[in-house]
Amino acid sequence: MSAIEIKDYGIAYGEDGPAILSGCNMKIDYGELVLLSGLSGSGKSTLLSSINGIIPGAVPAVQTGDILVDGESILGKRISQISVKVGSVLQNAASQIVHARVEDEVAFGCENRNYPPEEIWERIEEACRMMELEKDWATKTLSGGQKQRLITASTLAMGQKILVFDEPLANLDTEGAHMLLKLLKKLTREEGYAVLFVEHRLDVVLPYADRVLWMEDGKIEEIKKEDQREMTGRGRLADIGAAAVSDKLCLRAEHLAFQAGGREILKDITFDLYQGERLVILGENGCGKTTLLRLLARLLKPTGGSVTQYIDECLGQKASARWFRTAGYVYQDPNYQLFMSSVEEEVGYQSGSSENTARCMAEFDLERLAGRHPQSLSEGQKRRVGVAAIAAENPRLLFLDEPTVGQDFYNLKRMVETVSEIHKKTGMTMVTVTHDVRCAAALADRVLWIKNGVVYKHGGKELIAEYEAAQREACIGMDAYLQGQSP
Questions:
Q1: Torsion 406-392-417-332 (CA) sign
Q2: 217-246 pLDDT, tens per residue?
Q3: How far is residue 169's CA from residue 245's CA, in Å, rounded to a whole number?
Q4: Could you tell me if 35 and 181 are in contact, meaning their C-beta atoms sit under 8 angstroms apart?
Q5: Residue 334: DSSP 8-state
Q6: Could you tell me the maximum CA-CA distance found in the chain, to the nearest angstrom?
Q7: How far apart are CA 9 and CA 47, in angstroms?
Q8: 438-463: string of b/e by CB count within 10 Å (b at 16+)?
Q9: What does DSSP assign to residue 415?
Q10: Is the separation of the CB atoms in 307 and 294 below 8 Å?
Q11: How far apart (Å, rounded) are the C-alpha atoms in residues 18 and 175?
């Protein structure tokens, strides 16, 4: 008996709506870790939402065919019934967090499954240890990667033997990605778990996958071993060139510090940013990268130190409408910034002209999505819309927080090249937070490596290779729980 079996499955939103999936067939057995990949917007998340009952339980849709979980059809069953057997980690981890403390979040699912209190405590301890989380941390202070680890911990603590993951590596550093994959591989080999793993980072996941599936045009096919390597996009993107960096200051951070929820996230950060420069910020999950980006963009107030801007004295030193017309910020979670009723309206909201809107739509390959509601898109498509909408404003200073999340290799390459071309043409200053070492060098003139809330190292692009090597080294013998389980 298979863990998951998809039989000629199809889905459409409404009786007369176009088919999102059609004739899908797939089987996953217990003891397997199966990688499902495909182009952004091909229907991978839709399929996962069908397996865990979100579709049609929370999102109404017309279904055809059948989905079997542990040998039983789930069509017509409630989400709560399906979740007894299927554990889910969604693409947007923040949307799954309901409690204020890590301990309570991990306990929540266990309590719903009526585990005895002493067993719940043991499960909390084990899950937090595996995912390197502190039980008393406030969930609102966690980084994107830490939130991803928290939802993974909560899911593992519930003990379902069928697990589905939707882009779980999106906000994880290299060490965290391999830690998760080693653990899942151990669970499939030793305890008979079945894992369906949706991910674009094929180069990271392939060594752990028992089988590889590819989704395109709403259908699924299996990729043979000999054909998998050419799918990975293992190469690094080349730098297409950059605008000249000025000797004029853009921003100066002096002894910058930030505390929240009783945690000291940043302490004594000091550096200069020059006009026209491209700065990439690297660091492990939870080190303070996003917090630093928000402080520089004046979305947060520091609890110590200061940020001074030198772009234009008319902007002043406080957040203002004039400042936010000068500085564009692309959020790690695109749902925070998409609010118009169509993609074209979103990109055109502050673009200044229909010609500029059309140009940005074309540059980011969004023309075929022009009439779609932004919230109906895949996470990767939402990311492109968010970047395009901010780029259309022609900011002089651009902040990018994990801009390449959810992108297949084609769209990753196109996005990076488009942003780089805009930089060359306008000479804007760019600050990028990323875990994706495939594109980091193509977005950097200089690198800031944050570790434990301080500037650990800063320098040129060579730091990217050093950072990646350090992450790989940290993966070796991570935890006694995982030792000897490498694939």
A1: negative
A2: 888 999 887 777 666 555 578 777 777 788
A3: 33
A4: no
A5: G
A6: 69
A7: 9
A8: bbbbbbbbbbbbbeebebbeeeebeb
A9: H
A10: no
A11: 41
How far does the chain reach from its first CA to its final CA, in angstroms?
Answer: 25
How many C-beta atoms lie closer than 10 Å to residue 17's C-beta? 11
DSSP secondary structure, 69-130, as one string: ETTEE-TT--HHHHTTTEEEE-S-GGGG---SBHHHHHHHHHHHTT--HHHHHHHHHHHHHH
Tokens of 81: 């019934």
Query: What does the pLDDT look like over 266-314, one tens digit per residue?
Result: 999 999 999 999 999 999 988 999 999 999 999 999 999 999 999 988 8
C-alpha distances out from residue 32 to 5, 74, 181, 225, 400, Å = 13, 21, 13, 15, 36
Please state, in angstroms and rounded to a whole number, the distance separating the CA atoms of residues 450 and 312: 28
Tokens encoding 361: 């739509």
Residues 352/356/362/366 CA torsion (nearest 10 deg): 10
In what order do the strands lie in the sheet containing 62-69?
A: 19-28, 4-12, 62-69, 72-73
- Give the list of residues 6+ apart from residue 145 with CB closer than 8 angstroms, or none: 171, 172, 173, 176, 284, 285, 286, 435
The sign of the dihedral angle between the CA atoms of 465, 470, 476, 480 is: negative
Element (H, E) at 387: helix 379-391
3-state secondary structure of 365: coil
> Helices (H) and strands (E) in the chain — how many of each?
17, 19
Could you tell me the two tokens for 185?
């591989």
Environment class of residue 239 by beta-carbon count within 10 Å: exposed (0-12), middle (13-18) or buried (19+)? middle
Segments in the chain below pLDDT 70: 229-235, 474-487
- The conformational region for residue 163 under phi > 0 = left, psi -120 to 50 = alpha, else beta, is beta
Taking the CA atoms of the chain, what radius of gyration do you get in angstroms?
Answer: 23
Tokens found for residue 417: 């090249």
Give residue 471's pLDDT: 81
Cβ atoms 366, 343 nearer than 8 A: yes
Strand partners, 271: 253
Respond yes or no on whether the N-terminal peptide bond of residue 334 is cis (omega within 30° of 0).
Answer: no
- Indicate left, alpha or beta for 43 from its phi (over 0: left) and psi (-120 to 50: alpha): left
For tokens 């909560």, name the residue: 154
